[in-house]
Specification:
NAD(P)-bd_dom_sf; alpha/beta; 2 domains; seven-stranded mixed beta sheet; binds zinc ion; six-stranded parallel beta sheet; 19 strands
Length: 348
């Protein structure tokens, strides 16, 4: 069968193999036919050789961690043939650490977890894959075109879950949320904020393209100026750019008892002249919290599936700015300036 692969650590090794072996039974009893995979920055980093690890005993890593497929067979009866399904990306470490031991592999403490399409497990950019029932998430049948958004949605569902948990330290009633960065993660974070009834603000550099209208369709206010000049104090900020200046301004801007969730990954290496003492003073005197968030566990995947089923399918569809047939796979990994989410289509 066909599979999109790289040799991890070797730039330029991206290939569409025609003779990749069918998924081994050990991968799980649920056999799935691929519909599509979403492409994100992690895939690009793996293709550039900066990241990624092949499964033990193999040189090749199949890409793809934002999955959507249709069940072909499930002898466990968890799902029915024809059901839409996505695969949970991360698996717990074998030790396991205290968090993996309670199925919170998103909080793994020793880094020995594995991840489909990223770290030591084959990804979902292949025509068929298999899942264990505990790592298969069924999707609303209406999500055939957009169900590959479940993985990025699970990431923001976790961010909101942890914001709630931190908020419970006191009597906390957030009224508004600021999302910095209107890429797929930022817009999905804004979707979940709007579903919570918050007054939503989205900040992004873009003044053209689809982002302002997508934010507007959620009822969110869209800002493209500097963060420190916004005329309100956010109760919650979900920072999705990873841009160092935006990260620092978010920590300074959040209102009293506010929560800043850092969900964007900076590349590092940029030195900024910054008054760290003033930031410390603000965080202490306003009881503010800044925390990082990555990945998602089963609870978050289930919450994400519910959030997508409640969302407007047309709005979700507009996040997918390009669908690339598998035969033209390389084009999917060259995002354009107006792209939000590019999808590799296995049905074309
Ligand atoms: Zn662990």
């Amino acid at each position: 069968m066909r599979a999109v692969t790289v040799i991890p650590g070797v730039p330029g090794s991206l290939r569409l193999l025609d003779d990749y072996p069918d998924p081994a039974n050990e991968e799980g009893p649920i056999l799935v036919e691929a519909i599509s995979v979403g492409v994100c920055g992690t895939d690009i980093e793996i293709i550039e050789g900066q990241y990624g690890e092949a499964p033990p005993g193999s040189d090749h890593l199949v890409l793809g961690h934002e999955s959507l497929g249709r069940v072909l067979e499930d002898p466990t009866g968890t799902l029915q043939p024809g059901d839409l399904v996505a695969g949970i990306v991360r698996h717990p470490d074998p030790l396991p650490c205290p968090n993996c031991a309670v199925d919170e592999w998103d909080m793994c403490r020793n880094g020995m977890f594995t991840e489909h399409g990223i770290k030591a497990l084959p990804g979902f950019a292949r025509e068929r894959w298999r899942l264990q029932p505990g790592f298969a998430v069924g999707l609303d049948p209406a999500l055939t075109e957009v169900g590959m958004l479940l993985e990025p949605t699970s990431v923001v569902a976790k961010a909101w879950d942890h914001i709630d948990r931190i908020g419970r330290r006191t009597e906390w009633q957030p009224r508004n949320a600021l999302i910095t960065g209107a890429g797929p993660i930022g817009l999905l974070a804004a979707l979940l904020a709007s579903q919570r009834g918050l007054s939503v603000h989205v900040l992004d550099l873009a003044t053209e393209g689809p982002k302002p209208a997508l934010a507007g369709a959620l009822g969110a206010a869209y800002h493209s100026g500097p963060l420190d000049q916004l005329d309100f104090e956010p109760d919650v900020i979900i920072e999705c750019t990873g841009a160092p200046v935006v990260v620092l301004e978010a920590m300074c801007k959040v209102g009293p008892t506010g929560i800043v969730c850092l969900a964007g990954v900076s590349s590092g290496g940029r030195i900024i002249d910054f008054d760290a003492g003033a930031l410390n003073r603000t965080l202490v005197l306003e009881n503010n919290v800044v925390f990082g968030s990555v990945n998602a566990n089963r609870r978050h995947w289930n919450g994400a599936a519910e959030a997508l089923s409640k969302a407007d399918p047309a709005w979700l569809g507009a996040l997918v700015t390009r669908r690339v047939p598998l035969s033209e796979y390389a084009a999917a990994y060259s995002p354009g300036p107006q792209d939000i989410k590019v999808v590799l289509d296995f049905t074309a």
